């Protein structure tokens, strides 16, 4: 069976101040063309269809257009909700939409109930594991302590139990939205850390012929059977080195997997440049970036006048300007934003304790802080579901 694996569309998201809806529409055109021209027999979308729980109308209209076009091709599509989606909103009408061959899997209770498709070699069971917020689903899966590994392991137990009751030779594809150990994150994914742990081991998914992952925005191969497709478009400058693509997979009758990357169209390349302003304006090696979206880091010891205006004369698509002077001031003179850059909420809280008290928190206090942050995240997730 030929399968197209994609994820993390983030419909409605912008890139800095650039509206990406046109680029997202071009990606949908590309997706439909690949399905039609490459003989795709099933499409899987591994979460984060939208960028927010309540998406803009234009994003909903684009999603609706994508569903109609995929249904018109007569190629079954399986989608799960991600941590950016509202599972309940995305899943509205799933039963009716399923009759058109578009199978939305957004409910944790359905993890062990597959979409079963057939090819010349027999049945392929597609199991959709939507993003599982541990605090919200731990009771459903009967786990004592909320954690990503525990709830995903329990969900996979249901998958394996269902698969064991199916005819011998039934192949399986699992869709999941999670941070799996070994994956390389970027700056554009939302933090899903719980209890100080963000990732789960790939071994959680043992037993599946192929695991189609979503969440991380870079296309990655963790094992030959466990892959991230990555986002089809860039959403932060940390993705400057990414090759945006989808996985075109051939699942053999014996469960073997062969994979090919299919590139996605991007409106412009991304470039990160660094140096003193006057050097950046004349460096011939930077000519290749003149039509790219640019993030410029200026290292001038003294901030130059009108740096953005001068940069955009050469690099008209400069979107981000960062200052990192070569003779940086002492830490006490750094801006608040600079002092916090790259630090987690828990690290910031621990630094605050150390600043006020003179000593950092002990192990018991660190646990209290982490539990407090986990409780806030869980409360936010509950309120988002209720919106």
UniProtKB/TrEMBL annotation:
<feature type="domain" description="Calcineurin-like phosphoesterase">
    <location>
        <begin position="1"/>
        <end position="218"/>
    </location>
</feature>
<dbReference type="GO" id="GO:0004519">
    <property type="term" value="F:endonuclease activity"/>
</dbReference>
<keyword id="KW-0540">Nuclease</keyword>
<dbReference type="GO" id="GO:0006260">
    <property type="term" value="P:DNA replication"/>
</dbReference>
<dbReference type="InterPro" id="IPR029052">
    <property type="entry name" value="Metallo-depent_PP-like"/>
</dbReference>
<comment type="subunit">
    <text>Heterodimer of SbcC and SbcD.</text>
</comment>
<dbReference type="Pfam" id="PF12320">
    <property type="entry name" value="SbcD_C"/>
</dbReference>
<dbReference type="GO" id="GO:0006310">
    <property type="term" value="P:DNA recombination"/>
</dbReference>
<dbReference type="GO" id="GO:0008408">
    <property type="term" value="F:3'-5' exonuclease activity"/>
</dbReference>
<dbReference type="InterPro" id="IPR004593">
    <property type="entry name" value="SbcD"/>
</dbReference>
<keyword id="KW-0269">Exonuclease</keyword>
<comment type="function">
    <text>SbcCD cleaves DNA hairpin structures. These structures can inhibit DNA replication and are intermediates in certain DNA recombination reactions. The complex acts as a 3'-&gt;5' double strand exonuclease that can open hairpins. It also has a 5' single-strand endonuclease activity.</text>
</comment>
<keyword id="KW-0233">DNA recombination</keyword>
<keyword id="KW-0378">Hydrolase</keyword>
<dbReference type="InterPro" id="IPR026843">
    <property type="entry name" value="SbcD_C"/>
</dbReference>
<dbReference type="InterPro" id="IPR004843">
    <property type="entry name" value="Calcineurin-like_PHP"/>
</dbReference>
<dbReference type="Pfam" id="PF00149">
    <property type="entry name" value="Metallophos"/>
</dbReference>
<feature type="domain" description="Nuclease SbcCD subunit D C-terminal">
    <location>
        <begin position="267"/>
        <end position="355"/>
    </location>
</feature>
<comment type="similarity">
    <text>Belongs to the SbcD family.</text>
</comment>
<dbReference type="InterPro" id="IPR050535">
    <property type="entry name" value="DNA_Repair-Maintenance_Comp"/>
</dbReference>
<dbReference type="InterPro" id="IPR041796">
    <property type="entry name" value="Mre11_N"/>
</dbReference>
<keyword id="KW-0235">DNA replication</keyword>
<protein>
    <recommendedName>
        <fullName>Nuclease SbcCD subunit D</fullName>
    </recommendedName>
</protein>
<keyword id="KW-0255">Endonuclease</keyword>
